[in-house]
Design a protein that fits this description.
The chain is mainly β. The protein is built from no helices and eleven strands. Strand 7 and strand 8 form a beta hairpin.
Length: 122
């Protein structure tokens, strides 16, 4: 079983920065594609950044390009989200997600963390 734990959220003024962390534990025999999502009150959860298992490819939502940077520890399933130039509309719960591959069956499932709150004051 794979577990994800996010940390690093908090209250920050507009224009500030935060670094979110997502630590993976459990049986992880492979490097998984991973991503960061966020969900603001009354809105659907949206993907903001993704990174492939090798770490060589990343992608971002248009709304965060140039301000968010996703990265991962080399050879591990720990990922980070560096957020700069924060805006009040970035306020949301941020979730980490891993696409976990089941080696025995070649099946796959999504494992989510519990989320970390980011609040940006104007």
């Amino acid at each position: 079983q794979v577990q994800l734990v996010e940390s690093g959220g908090g209250l920050v003024q507009a224009g500030g920065s935060l670094r979110l962390s997502c630590r993976t534990s459990g049986r992880t025999s492979m490097l998984y594609d991973m991503g960061w999502f966020r969900q603001a009150p009354g809105r659907e959860r949206e993907r903001v950044a993704a990174i492939v298992g090798s770490g060589t490819g990343t992608a971002y939502a248009d709304s965060v390009k140039g301000r968010f940077t996703i990265s991962r520890d080399k050879g591990k399933n720990n990922v980070y989200l560096q957020i700069t130039s924060l805006k009040p509309e970035d306020t949301a719960v941020y979730y980490c997600k891993s696409a976990v591959v089941i080696v025995a069956t070649l099946g796959e499932y999504d494992q989510w963390g519990q989320g970390t709150q980011v609040t940006v004051s104007s």
